[in-house]
Amino acid sequence: MTEQRARRTDPHRRERIVEATVECIAEHGVAGTSHRRVAQLADVPLGSMTYHFAGMDELLREAFTTFARRIEAAFAERLGQGGADEVLDAVVDLVHVDLQRSRAEHVLTYELYTLAARRPEFREITQSWMHASREVLGRVFDPVTARRLDAYVEGAALHIALDPDPQPREQTRTALRLLAGR
């Protein structure tokens, strides 16, 4: 009789691969993300990559979806409940604190936008993200205002992240109030 080799049980391997992909994109961009690099970061055999994911596109979709869901949850948590004035104050914090939390999140966001701009199959992730943001804002504002505020959040966060002299919180608050008709 031959002995069977013991199989290593690793029930969280797929999730580790996805997390390592998010980390790899943040560090090296989409262009610098490879199966080999991700496997090394996840501490898994290279063969695990093709076992768990059909290809790089599937892996990127999963990683960006995971990242977008985290941002959506943080957005919903930050905005919580309250009236229009409380939500607008929370949006100011979102723009100046939450969305400025890390360089890695900026890179991930802009890498996703670039990929979605080039490849329509990735737009469903950004569309879902926008829909979730508008839905949260829609608890307090009409759909047109929610869309307007959501677009401003994206643009203001980008400007604050990249401008050497970013606008102060009070300017953000004023712009949000104007957009909300308050």
TrEMBL record:
Residues 11-71 form the HTH tetR-type domain. The keyword DNA-binding applies. The keyword Amino-acid biosynthesis does not apply. Keywords: DNA-binding. It holds the Pfam family TetR_N. Coiled coil: none annotated. It comes from the Bacteria. InterPro entries: Homeodomain-like_sf, HTH-type_TetR-like_transc_reg, HTH_TetR, Tet_transcr_reg_TetR-rel_C_sf, TetR_C_31. Residues 34-53 bind DNA. This is TetR family transcriptional regulator.
